[in-house]
Amino acid sequence: MSSKYRMIWKWMDGCRLLYGGAVVALVLGSCFLYLVPMIPQATLDGVLAEDPSKASPFVRDLVDRFGGREHLRANLWIPGVAILALTTMAGVFTYLRGRWSAIASEAIARKVRDNLYDQLQHLPCRYHDRAETGDQVQRCTSDVDTFRRFLATQVVEIGRAIVMMLVPIPLMLALDVRMTIVSVVTIPPIVLFSFFFFRRVQRRFQRVDEAEAAMTSTLQENLTGIRVVRAFARQDLEIEKFEKRNGTHRGLDYQLYRLFATFWGVSDFLCMGQKALVVGAGGYWLATGQLQVGTFFFFLSAVSLFIWPVRMLGRILSELGKALVAIGRIGEILEHPRESRPVPAVVASSAADRLVAGRIAFEGVRFSHGNGPVLDGIDFEIEPGGTLALLGPSGSGKSTIVNLLLRFYDPEAGTIRIDGVDIARLDRKEVRRKIAVVMQEPFLYSKSLRENIRLGRKGAAEEEISEAARTACIHESILEFDRGYDTMVGERGVTLSGGQRQRVALARALVDDPLILVLDDALSAIDTETETMILEALRRRRGGHTTIVIAHRLSTLAHADRILVLDHGRVVQHGTHGSLLRADGLYKRLWRIQTSTEEEFAEDLRTAGEAAGT
User: Fold this and answer.
1) Are 194 and 317 in contact (CB under 8 A)?
2) Per the CB 3.0–4.6 Å rule, which of 83, 321, 367, 547 could disulfide with 202?
3) pTM
4) What is the pLDDT of residues 28-81, one digit of tens each?
């Protein structure tokens, strides 16, 4: 618990002065507010009463300070002006309190959001592998907003409740000790009940927040895969799934509001009971001549002023409970270790300067996700400007090699070197700046085609963008669009075909002119003719960068300088296309299967064509 309060104090850095000013304004505004009923009370007991000697010494002294009883009786406008002035001052300080606390809370919320977004960009891939996207969105939006509302209103309201309860005590004691005791007799039960309520609310809100996060995750997952949902006609199942999550959230929310209703009912009873005690006791002492009218009026006004802030203590504590839950969920992200290991800047910079050729070497690399080895003793080397092809069944470790090269993960054993430099000695950003990757399912932003391609290098000229697009065989297709390179693509590039997305992603990679180019099954959605043109264009660029190609279509791999065949995390074959065809093994079997299938398909097409002609 104390760690959460320390976290709040840390986030308030730079805004503490504003909060201090808000608290000072709060105290001054409360003092002026309590002085307002003192004016009618002093006027009734010390000026208009038949026997002013019965007034308290405090009232008589106050009357004397304003010119005496006779002077005030002749100028009753003076108390009216005093009430107006005090009310105005209370309003000014209340405004300042609200303004300063709002400015501070918004600044803190902005800082927290920025820190969260920055942290998410640098968390290790293992964290993102386990985390649900919807839950992360919930923490960065709803939880931050819960924390912001607490800072904007409830932090200062805590001070207001305390000040509104403590400020009038000296004045009340100076006027009448008995009425003071009667006026605060139910305050301890209200406070104790509020703290009991706070503990209950905190536990309930934790469950409500987690249920809302699960509901958000379901919605996010559905919208992301909406085409798959419709393709398999799963709308009814998805609706049922969402209704279940929504029902769970509604049930927990209902329990929470039932708890609120119980608190408000009990606290209202206690607060109204407190006012009833003041009216009953004050009325009795007023009837028996033991209490002045003005004093009774002051106590009635004072109780009305401080009893409701005390009653609001329950709301404040419930909001505190929500805020602490939200802070805990935010803190889980912010306190998670980042992916980059500390590397001395001088060492990292000098080592990165040596990455100019693109020689890649894997030496005894082992890696697992905790469910058995994914890579088990991988050794290979790629010469600068060479092309390495990776082939193997699903789960053999092909993409894991790329992930380790990009330092998405670090190997459990072995070393990965680029130009003789152990990449573990490099900052991850330095490694990734040297590598461009084209994935099988490329991600495109909801921007223009030009902006998506230029993402590879912000300063790329129009000629460089066009040249990269020509190499990726997408230039002519882009020109056929109504707006050419200014054509907007939908979110994740949904307005383009799968092959077009892959070619735009390839152009984005090529415009960066990387030291190392990785094609992770990046031509799978492209027809054979276009693939041949792209591979030919890449061959003409050979020597400009080292290339790693992952593919299941063997024709894509045939041009490689070296081919590695992987199975169960091990290299089972390696060589050129020709040497692997001459040797018995997995590569030769796959080649026979693919070529025979293609020949059968071509024969079927020829037969169908002849049948149609006749």
Assistant:
1) yes
2) 321
3) 0.70
4) 887 787 778 778 777 777 777 766 666 667 677 777 777 777 777 778 788 888
